[in-house]
Amino acid sequence: MSNSVGFVTGPRENGDTSTVESVADILERELQSVIVDWLARVEQEADLTCIPLSFEDRTGHLPHLLHDVIKRLRLDAGTKAPISKAAAEHGDLRRKQGYTVAMAVEESRLLQVTIFSTLHRNVKNLEFSLLLPDVVTIADEVDAQLKEQMLRFMAADATAMARGK
């Protein structure tokens, strides 16, 4: 939706001379902290931790999903977003791990909360003219990823029903 602003220095209207970054640049820079923060949120949810998973099994999908968000943020306005292959694979994985639809939805909600909290922590570095459109893009991309996951859940359920399971 927006083009990367890159790094710009110089005084803002309020006299602040901090570095200004695009949302995509901030998420790319903060990728590991987003993953750690997301996991901390997940670990507070008994509905999610009832399925014991290793760090890799619980978070291994996040770099791919987050890179899809970052790529989407860097698309030119009006460009059709590609369907996230990582999201589809994640849906298959979570279903095999025993997740319910509600659990996948909760993970997705926590991802959005974590992304927006990361942006809030970096508020001094944000390019404000692009913030709201980028927030809309993030919400749209994470919801599109969730849709892909749910389509995989439904396809697996249909296959299981066809086999009589």
If you had to describe this structure to a student in words, what would you say it looks like?
The chain has eight helices and no strands. With 165 residues, the protein is mainly alpha-helical. It has one domain (23-162): Globin-like. Helix 2 (31-42) packs across helix 7, helix 6 (85-96) packs across helix 8 and helix 7 runs antiparallel to helix 8. The longest helix is centred in the C-terminal third of the chain and has 35 residues, at 128-162. The chain is globular, with a radius of gyration of 18 Å. The relative contact order is 0.18. Residues 1-12 have low confidence and may be disordered.
Give a nutshell description of this structure.
Helices cover 65% and strands 0% of the residues. The chain is mainly alpha-helical and 165 residues long.
How are the SSEs placed, and which strands pair?
Elements: H1 23-29, H2 31-42, H3 46-49, H4 55-59, H5 62-73, H6 85-96, H7 101-121, H8 128-162
Helix pairs in contact: 1-5, 2-7, 5-8, 6-8, 7-8
